[in-house]
């Protein structure tokens, strides 16, 4: 039997850890997914179980290499950001993988920003709101002052995608998509590491920057790994030449505009906008909305009140007449959490109002990163792309745009495969990796 040439992609999310094998036409020919139990750090805060994660990566890769039906030509990695692994000279982790939700010490917060020009000025330089541990460079700053002995032992602080790569290659490196993702490490005005990384002795703890398309030779070629949000953008940047905006929906709904290169303003920062760096090293302006999590909480609330199953809402059809009725009754934008459920006659009515409220917030958040008249198309991927209410209401909210539900199987994993395409794949990239379903404006207003 002829072995199928494949690339293996580890796609490491907060909840699901996945391995995909893609053939040379980017079809998934194998996948494995696990959920790993969390553990706690020394303060009792929840965090990733790093030994469990290491075993999953190494054992799964070993088992795939033993399979006779596949010829693994390359491997690459996509993983969530804002998470650092501090390794010593031997590559051994020195600390737990601290959660980006871990509370940040107020005293360290104050001393850092006081020494670096204040929060407002620093945010403009780093193109990020003040996010505590989510500014992952602040984790390295905390290690220096709270655990100085471990800081001195630290050879490198690796972002999670690069640590996963290190597990299989033994080569430590940094990647621009991770460094450029609200880390406080990168100066977007000067397009280089921020000066504080030198003055605090942090710069030497960051492994050498490597290009996203660089591979390590060996039994198979190995990439350096990418931040998952930047990886998910790659199939769109490769397939579509016209300017677009992507709303990537999940727990967070992130509006990404790769065609807005204007510097972040104070007002945009105050409204939770930030910049990513694409795999090409170019700024991508983005805004964030916690809509997926809010949707989950409010659906549970509606389901309990009306004695429904939460799954009943997954495929609810869009009712234009009901939307118009609700908009005439509740003309003002509001958060659904502030609405009283007895005011609604049915679960369908309550759910339509929830989505109206979410789209009002989405319209504002997305509007923050639309710039000029370049962008004519909005693509939506992730969970809400399959939600008829979300898509129809979004089309109505942006009548001057063409709104598409985009379907690309495992976008971040495919992006990680595509970025090293030339190294492992003898065929051209297929032109149909992203399929689109258009939504036109209804009579919603």
Automatic annotation (TrEMBL):
Q: Gene Ontology cellular component?
A: cytosol
Q: Which stretches make up the Carbohydrate kinase FGGY N-terminal domain?
A: 7-193
Name the Gene3D superfamilies for this protein.
3.30.420.40
The protein's matches in CDD domains, at most eight in alphabetical order, are given as: ASKHA_NBD_FGGY_NaCK-like
Q: Where is the Carbohydrate kinase FGGY C-terminal domain?
A: 242-422
A molecular function (GO) held by this record is: glycerol kinase activity
Task: Report which superkingdom the organism of origin falls in.
Answer: Bacteria
**Which key words are in the record?**
Kinase, Transferase
One biological process term from GO is: glycerol metabolic process
Spell out the family assignment given in the record's similarity comment: Belongs to the FGGY kinase family.
Protein name in the entry: Carbohydrate kinase
